[in-house]
Amino acid sequence: ATDAGEPEPLGLCGYVLVLIAYVMVIATFPISLCFCLKVVQEYERAVIFRLGQLVPGGAKGPGLIFMLPCVETHRNVDMRTVTFDVPPQEILSKDSVTVAVDAVVYYRVQNATISVTNVENAQRSTRLLAATTLRNVLGTKTLGEILTERENISHQMQTALDEATDAWGVKVERVEVKDVRLPVQLQRAMAAEAEATREARAKVIAAEGEKNASRALKEASEVISESPAALQLRYLQTLNAISAEKNSTIIFPLPVDLLR
Question: Where does the pLDDT of residue 240 fall: very low under 50, low under 70, confident under 90, or very high at 90 and above?
Answer without folding.
Answer: confident
